[in-house]
Amino acid sequence: MIEHLPEREQQWLARFFAAPNELRWSSLLDGSVSTREADQVRQWLRLLAAQHPSAPLVLPFVRGGTITGWYATTQGTSGGTELRDEINAWLGPTWLSHLERVSEGSSDPMAEALRDRFGGTVYRFTGPDDAALQAISARLGNFAALLERRPLVTRTQARPVGAIRSDFERALLAGDEAQAEAMIAELKQTGRLNEENLRYLEVRLSAGLGLWPQIARDHWLIKTMADLALPPQVLADLIEALYRTYVDEAEASGDAAAMQNAFARHIAAPYPKLFASRRGIRTSRVIKAFLLFERLQASPDPAIIGDLLDVLPPGTDASLFEASRPAGPAPRVAGAAISDEADEAFDDGQFDRAFEFYLRLAPSKKTISRLLSCVGMIGTDDARNRLLALVDRAKPDLTAELTPGIAGKVESLRQAQPSWLSAVTGKPAQPTANPWMNWAERLQAGDNLAAAQQEVQSAPTNWDASEVRESGPFSQRFATIVSGLGGEAGMIARAAVPQIFASFFPVDAVPSPAAKPIASLLFLLIAMDEALSRADLDLLAQLASILVEQGLSSEDYVILIKDLEDVQKRIGSYAYLPWSLDLTEALAILPCTSDVARDARLRLFLQVLGQAAGFAHRLAPHDLVPIEILAKDYGVSPETVSTLRRDAKGDDAGPLLPNLEGKMIGIYTLAEAAGSRAKAALEKLFPGCKVVVNSDLVATPQLTSLAKSADMFVFAWKSSSHQAFYCVKDALTKGEPIWAPGKGTASILRAVLDHLA
């Protein structure tokens, strides 16, 4: 152990164990000193080598062939007083005859060596006779042993709430429940969360994991939260959970009446307060829910329905709602009727409806006052700008008649208008400009970065990403701007990775080829992080698959593989082997159109094999089987894998695999190729075992039957549909499913073996 200390440590130790100390460093290295003296040194150097920064060091001084005293110091500039107290506590006046602090001006070479290395307080002490010296040696040995067993005390600085929240959203994107819950626990420790915030996080966690019925069937949770001024993301999660659970099936059948009835019974009647305001949310199910809610009104407003139809995301089937779209301009209604409608909506807390109706009336002190209240609830730039436009068109005498309180609120709204866009373009702010491009240009201009950081939090629900996502030039411009950011703006962009990912690559949509520059941008933003979590790795694997599936030139493919090699170099360990194998499996299955690209892909796999050789003693059969399959994919000689198998732990090194003859293992995964490979691998590992793979998108009789009859059911939840999840959950009769942490063969195999262990 002594000879393996870093050169830096050996240099000062050679100074300490030198004349006048008769115990020499060279003697300790060659083992020529007595066991007693060597043990006195080793027990303390073990603490140094094990990096116990809070532990002191106590080293012996030898004269006349025996230990006559000791020197003690801390591993740093602090803790000197505590060290004196500890020495007195362990030895005290019973054994000590001398304990003194060595002054900084002392010429004592041992003290000087310790002080030069650690910079802290140095003490020297001794006992009155041989019996005391032997007792001190024994008690110091006990002290050192106790310090080795004492757990490390780490003082971690609390991270900013924004950084923790960003990691929480990353974990949700990756479907990593454990990591997401860890982030919630860390947020709790900040002391900045109240009971409402905790409820919001619980809803966000369930929504991020796709547990929609779990949210929708918690009546009192939704009832309680409907009374709160919910953040847009939480409001969107609640309404989406309700819509998915109670309306999706009727909508899929194309039955408009059944859809309206299901919505009225399960959503509108019990939770009308959820529809006070859409808060600018643009997700498809939320907009459709507000469409159905408007149609339930005593007098549905065609203009409101038309506006909602217009903001449905591209590709949404709106045929069930088209009957309510106005054929032409909205009919003119008497002012008194509109006023009554507006007042009724306002009194009922339906602020979106009230806002639209009050805008149609001639402005007055009352309407402007109520419009201000509506804008406060709606909270969007569009609502603010429409109100200010109305005030600007009003007669000057009306503006002069406004009370100071109302006039002050109007002026506050005017001051809140974005000035950053005009700073970038030299033109007045355009409320209709794409918010994602505006955000990128705002970061580039460095204008009001704190507001930009805050506003992007609601981007997945409120910002329209389709214009940028579907346009190659827009996507490239956005990626170019964000990738060139530095300083605080660059940090804000990296923290916004979850929002960018969720907006441009939504779970329910096929990735747009035009958004390939943004996928490359996200890959780099994540890969640049100093430390990569499991959630980060899962996102990188998703992005790599997206990029390859969308088509890469040979040059771009090689660049991607080089980036993956850098990631693999940083995380190459047995703990991450399933991720590495799942990644190389995905690359082996996906298209690769040139010899140069195939060579790059092969290099990555060989890198994984090389790293696996370093921990071959840990490899088990469920690790080796997918490696053998991949070796065939990549054309690697069987001898390479045979070497790993020889170095792996043998049959006697670990528990034997159980006999599963006659048993059935069910596997659910949407990655059909990985499911087929896992089936072949499991049947090889467990002869006589039947493995059945299902990849149905929805609940089917076949999936239900498999869940009921399987002795073990593996659910690859990162490659699954939520409808299938609840089908399996309800049908499973033999406990919980086996959760596979990834969607590749290696992850499925390790999940099964871990379950059997």
Describe this structure as you would to a colleague.
With 757 residues, this protein is mainly α. The strands form 2 sheets. A 4-stranded antiparallel β-sheet has the order 1-2-4-3. Strand 7 (712-715), helix 41 and strand 8 (738-739) form a beta-alpha-beta unit. The longest helix has 20 residues, at 130-149. The radius of gyration is 34 Å and the shape is globular.
Layout of strands and helices, then pairs:
Layout (H helix, E strand, L loop, with lengths): L6 H10 L8 H6 L4 H15 L7 E7 L2 E8 L6 H11 L1 H4 L2 E4 L7 H10 L3 E5 L3 H20 L11 H14 L2 H13 L5 H14 L3 H5 L2 H7 L6 H15 L1 H6 L2 H13 L15 H12 L6 H9 L24 H13 L3 H10 L4 H14 L2 H13 L2 H6 L2 H12 L4 H6 L9 H11 L3 H7 L3 H4 L3 H4 L2 H12 L3 H9 L1 H8 L11 H12 L6 H17 L3 H18 L5 H13 L5 H20 L6 H14 L3 H10 L16 E5 L3 H14 L4 E5 L6 H9 L2 E4 L6 H10 L6 E2 L5 H12 L1
Parallel strand pairs: 5-6, 5-7, 7-8
Antiparallel strand pairs: 1-2, 2-4, 3-4
The chain-level structural class is: mainly alpha
- SS strand fraction: 5-15%
Kindly report the oligomeric state of this protein: single chain
Find the count of extended strands (DSSP E, 2+ residues): 8
Per DSSP, the total helix count is 42
Broad shape: globular
Rg from Cα? 34 Å
Helical fraction equals 55-70%
**Largest sheet properties:** 4 strands, antiparallel
Q: pLDDT average, as an integer?
A: 85
Main-sheet strand order equals 1-2-4-3
Report the end-to-end length measured between terminal Cα atoms.
35 Å
Given as residue ranges, the uncertain stretches (5+ residues, pLDDT < 50) are 419-432, 651-655
